[in-house]
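Figure 2 data, in text form.
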Amino acid sequence: MDQFSVVLRMEAWARKQRWHVHPKARTEAVARELLEIRGWNLSRPPKGNVLWKNEYRDYPHLLEAMLGRGKLGQGGDAYPDFLVVTPEAHPLIVGETKASESKVDLAISEACDFYGEAFADKGIRVLAAGIAGDDKSNIEVRVKKRSMREWRQIEYREKPIQWLPTPEENQRYYLATSIGTTFSRAFHPVKYWPPSAATNKQDITRVQD
């Protein structure tokens, strides 16, 4: 087989791999990009802020909260798609992804009802995020916080936010809730949404005046 034929076969194989990427994997890749765009370091703590899948099991206090908290009460441990944490691995946001944008309500429901509640039962306050869709479709984002009795969507000017909080917004949120004041102004609208509407990553981090 000559070199040209080898190259053609390699290119065909590469195309096949792209075609067979699971839709859920594409959504998880979108989640990574959204987190990075919003200012989170994708490395594990202490250098970064994100734990993927079962990476939390390396941190005893997170493992304790997740033990036996799998979906549908089947007895397994929790398996969130991602956790956003401090450099000390204190949980801030628990996230779930779905391949189809139409399943964003399911994504946020699972993030709240299974994983968010697991932390709440340990007295740990987290935000819950649901991300649905991929780079070939629209992307839907929902973010909720737990009130005294239920999970409620976080709003900005009486409308649910549709973006992931930045580290600064997250810090303002926890400060506001800790002193019992309003926190709606902690979250600023993203000017370019979805990300495909922006010309570069810097555009996505801008906020409306």
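Caption note: Residues 23-204 form one domain.
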